[in-house]
Design brief:
Structural class: alpha+beta
Radius of gyration: 19 Å
Number of helices: 10
Order of helices and strands: HHHHEHEEEEEHEEEHHEHH
Shape: globular
Largest sheet: 6 strands, mixed
Strand content: 5-15%
Number of domains: 2
Strand order of the largest sheet: 1-10-7-6-5-2
Length: about 280
């Protein structure tokens, strides 16, 4: 009993610490927060309240923890070799030209995990992407779902698609989904439907509540196929494993290989753990 009370007091202290840290920074909870990835994850968890207890198993099965573990390691790995290979294997109808645009700048792109809330209009609809990948040519919004029983809220994909096409600002937009299995995707109140249909069902309604969007509904509907792609966690696991196996080991600098091997193992271990 005493141990449980101490754990709850600790978790409450963590939440309060994050809150006051943000207040002192003048950030509040909303908007982009200039913290480490771990700090931004703590911000997200601080909203859980009593439900924080579900993370006592290390967050196994929860998408924000899985995404942080996997994509932080991907950010640390040589991007051209690992993240770049994931981009090459994205599925959907996006063009090879778009993939090439991302690959061209892959080592210098700005990659932000858990960026916080972004609003479609002032004090209006908020979107909370899992990551943003951007360069001078591409604006990519990352949305990841848990491996088992992942589902989207009814308007989620429409909101994220509306956001990525708005914030691209002349760049090529891309909504990148990481899924437990290939589409059709599970959407609350709609069952399993295609990614495109999930966007179209609520697109007009979401667009009507969005300020200063550069495209109208008809234009956005035509852009979906060329602006949305997906990949599964199993595919990511296979890709990083294969790239490590094909990595040219240099006996003169074994530390480089060992470092890459540890990061890849952290990814594969994380995906395996979150499957349970």
């Amino acid at each position: 009993m005493a141990s449980t009370l101490l754990q709850e007091e600790y978790l409450s202290s963590v939440s309060n610490f994050v809150y006051y840290l943000l207040i002192l920074r003048g950030e509040g909870y909303m908007g982009e927060v200039n913290l480490s990835v771990l700090g931004r994850l703590l911000v997200e968890l601080s909203w859980e309240g009593p439900k924080i207890k579900k993370y006592r198993n290390g967050g196994s099965g929860y998408e924000n923890v899985l995404t942080t573990e996997v994509f932080q390691s991907l950010d640390f790995l040589p991007r051209e070799m690992f993240l770049g290979e994931i981009i090459k294997n994205l599925e959907g109808s996006i063009s090879n030209e778009l993939k090439t645009m991302i690959l061209k700048d892959i080592e210098i792109i700005n990659f932000t995990l858990l960026p916080g809330d972004i609003f479609l209009s002032p004090n209006g609809i908020n979107v909370q992407p899992d990551g943003i990948i951007e360069s001078d040519h591409v604006y990519c919004l990352l949305e990841a779902k848990r491996i088992k029983n992942g589902q989207f809220s009814p308007q989620q994909l429409a909101r994220e698609y509306t956001l990525v096409t708005k914030e691209a600002r002349g760049r090529q937009p891309l909504l990148m989904l990481v899924l437990g299995e290939n589409p059709p995707v599970k959407v609350r109140d709609h069952g399993r439907i295609s990614v495109k249909d999930s966007i179209l069902i609520h697109l007009e309604s979401v667009l009507g509540k969005t300020k200063d969007h550069p495209y109208n509904f008809e234009q956005l509907a035509k852009m979906i196929d060329s602006s949305v792609a997906w990949i599964t966690w199993d595919q990511i696991n296979e890709i990083v494993t294969r790239k490590l196996e094909n990595f040219e080991f240099n006996s003169e600098s074994p530390n480089t290989y060992n470092c890459i091997s540890r990061l890849v193992t952290s990814i594969t271990d994380s995906i395996k753990r979150h499957k349970i």
